[in-house]
Design brief:
Its EC number is 3.4.23.36. It is found in: Cell membrane. This is Lipoprotein signal peptidase. By secondary structure, this protein is α+β, with helices and mostly antiparallel strands. The chain has one domain (2-163). It is 59% helix and 15% strand. It contains five helices and four strands; from the N terminus they run ααββααββα. It has helices at residues 2-6, 13-33, 67-89, 96-117, 139-163; strands at residues 39-43, 46-53, 121-129, 132-133. It has a four-stranded antiparallel sheet with strand order 1-2-3-4. α3 packs antiparallel against α4 (96-117). The longest helix has 25 residues, at 139-163. The termini are far apart.
Length: 164
Amino acid sequence: MLKLFTETGWRFLWLSVLVLVADQYTKALVLDNIELYQAIQILPFFNFTHVYNYGAAFSFLHDAGGWQRWFFTIIAFAVSALVLWWSKQTTKQQIMLPIAFSLIIGGAIGNAYDRLVHGYVIDFLVLYYQDWYWPAFNVADSAICIGAVLLIIDMFKNKEEKND
């Protein structure tokens, strides 16, 4: 059993827990300290703005009537289970891939927890330039995006190594 957590990608699952804790902690701070729709300017291009996302990325299906809450929750747990299984398949020599998997798992579970408990995802990080605003996001979304970028980098890195 110890080998499972020392010689596979599961050795990075602490990162999933760290993402989950950081995500839920920051969301609790937002709930306790920022009114809904209140924006607090941090930098000339960055606000903390308390909003709810009833859909998926970029509020996709936010007005679908409620079924999307359960649909996205099921998808998050199914993807997390699949990624957890993939992570177990990685070797001790692989580092970037299991780190990417762990970031994705932590982020997916963080947002799924919000959907289960609140019925929506709490978002609060907003980037903008003049009148152009990037959709609000959170720590979990950031972890998922970083994990996805690392997956892409790993894919190209491994392709180059196989061609050598």
